[in-house]
Amino acid sequence: MDKTHGSSIELKEAITKITRGAQLTTAELEDTLSKEPTDYQYLMLRDIQDGLVNDDLPYLKAVDSRHDKYCLEPEDLLISKVGLPFKVAVADDFQGKKVLATGNLFIIRLNRDIIKPWCLKAYFDSEDGIKALEGIASGTVMRHIGVSGISSLIIPCPSLEEQQRIENNYREALSKIKDLKRQLASAIEASKNIFEEVEL
Fold first, then answer.
1. Which domains does the chain show, CATH number per domain?
2. pTM
3. What's the pLDDT tens digit per position in 1-25?
4. What is the DSSP letter of 75?
């Protein structure tokens, strides 16, 4: 169902930059891991759960300057390269920390005067958006998507005013999801201690 009254564009019209995550070997990553909090973190595909970027990303001692192009900016769109269903997220404001995206992720920077990242994320979470991503996938055993497929996607492009309304509603829904996930985690943790409270 067309919800934008015929207004649509090729995604490449709104992309200012698209790149893969940094391809680091396990040894390279382990070499720079930090057990203590630093100003550097990294994000892997597994750190995106239920469309949200985990709050507790692992820390790095530093980020090599040659990997700066793989570091995230607020509101970068993230799409997984492999596996169904494809994961989609929007990078948070990491409060001054440098966050390196690694592995099978596409980092997509958008012209926000054309399409707002949270609005596009809401579309990719919809039934139509999921089908659109699946439609550009190739491979049999492991489904995957590429830069050309992403760039050629036809996406709905409502007015910026309508996009803002969608973004506000979507972010409000995400905020509720985050709160519920925290409550669930707290309840699970509390359940582990119930037996210990029994006096024998």
1. 8-191 (3.90.220.20)
2. 0.86
3. 344 445 999 999 999 999 999 998 8
4. T
